[in-house]
Amino acid sequence: MHALLFERPVWFATGPLIIAEEAPEMEDFTYHQPVLARETIELLAPRPGTLIVDGTCGGAGHTELILEKGADVLGLDQDPDAINYATGRLSQFGGRVTLRQANFRNAAQVLDSLGVIGIGGALLDLGISSRQLETSDRGFSIMRNGPLDMRMDPRRELTAADIVNSYSEEDLTRIFRDLGEEPAARRIASQLVKQRKTVPFRETIQLAKAIEKIVWRHGRRHPATQVFQALRMEVNDELRALEDGLLALSMRLEPGARFAVIAFHSLEDRIVKNFFRDRSREFLDRPEWPEPRPNPDFQFTLVTSKPVEPSAEEQRENPRSRSAKLRVAERI
Ligand SMILES: C[S@@+](CC[C@H](N)C(=O)[O-])C[C@H]1O[C@@H](n2cnc3c(N)ncnc32)[C@H](O)[C@@H]1O
Predict the structure, then answer these.
(1) How far apart are CA 51 and CA 122, in angstroms?
(2) Ligand 1, pocket-test mutation among 53, 152, 155, most atoms within 8 A of CB
(3) How many angstroms separate the Cα of 242 from the Cα of each of 82, 124, 239, 266, 272?
(4) 83 with 77: CB under 8 angstroms?
(5) Which of 41, 102, 157, 260 has the fewest CB within 10 Å, making it most exposed?
């Protein structure tokens, strides 16, 4: 049962139009609806008695499904709120699950601290959870006012407000362009630098409204969507953490163990695709070489040659799944 409790503006060509948003009642509140759940578990193929690292535990939806298949889990999340929630949700599994607040880029240190060398599989479900997006004081949402924060790990120092108020115009342009793929990056950066001299940016709606005025755009997406994405990725150093995490976890996979990664935008997906592709070639060839040479990084066979995407039904039921791409590789 759902109740119509909240209203939130949705962006249309004519400007913000208020539509009612279905808000879950407390008893069926879900922290996060796991994306591509059936496909992920099928392709990750967790085996009883093995240890799977879920590097992005979140609301523990995927973690629970892995545990139900009989594998043990080490669940990591850099957000302490996710670890608290997962601890409650997974209590029935007792000692079969270990949870740690940690960045998955540091998975090797966590495994070492537990005395674990090899693992039977790994999962990364990237980005933020619905809970993080919908909790206004985390500062991720364009639609809910809150401090311009965006830290998944509150122990980190740099917030989105620090970036908007202190980065140079060149650096803001670079992150809006490279991380947000924002075509008006330069214009937005230059205006924000001018405006912050009079009033610093402190809140999400304040920044969203300022961007609305700089780049009024047709379309369903709010004009600040790409800038918010760029800020979130910069605050959490998301692309470098992904590169580090792929490397750290792949080094620990036992032969036959699988690595599943769900990405939500093209920058992340490109990193995952190239990582698996570069490590699934047995030989390397170059025009200047007389013959192909063995690839020193050869590590994987591809389980998915093309990414798996959510069915039309899943996309209808969970619109946040729309951009998801799942890639899976198996350790040779
Ligand atoms: C999309 S949610 C995962 C949802 C989860 N699979 C489920 O079924 O509920 C992503 C989670 O990953 C966490 N996260 C993102 N980047 C991380 C990183 N580098 N290290 C650890 N956790 C990370 C976020 O805090 C968030 O809780």
Answers:
(1) 9
(2) 152
(3) 19, 9, 5, 13, 8
(4) yes
(5) 157
Q: Could you give the CA distance from residue 150 to residue 145 in angstroms, rounded to a whole number?
A: 12
Q: Cα–Cα distance between 113 and 119 in angstroms, integer?
A: 14
Over the stretch 215-267, which tens digit does the pLDDT of each residue have?
Answer: 987 777 899 999 999 999 999 999 999 999 999 999 999 999 999 999 999 99
pTM of the model: 0.91
**Residue 15 amino acid letter:** G
**Taking the CB of residue 34, how many other CB atoms lie within 10 A of it?**
22
| 107, 245 Cβ separation under 8 angstroms | yes
End-to-end CA distance of the chain: 47
Cβ–ligand 1 contact at 140 (below 6 Å): no
DSSP three-state, residue 296 = coil
Q: Rounded CA gap, 277 and 268, in Å?
A: 14
CA 285/CA 108 separation, integer angstroms? 32
The residue whose CA is least distant from atom 20 of ligand 1 is 103
Q: How far is the CA of 19 from the centre of ligand 1 (A)?
A: 29
How far apart (Å, rounded) are the C-alpha atoms in residues 201 and 206? 7
Surface-to-core class of residue 306, CB atoms within 10 Å of its CB (0-12 exposed, 13-18 middle, 19+ buried): exposed
CA distances from 197 to 12, 191, 201 (A): 31, 10, 10
Q: What is the pLDDT of residues 9-68, one digit of tens each?
A: 333 323 333 222 233 333 335 899 999 999 999 999 999 999 999 999 999 999 999 999
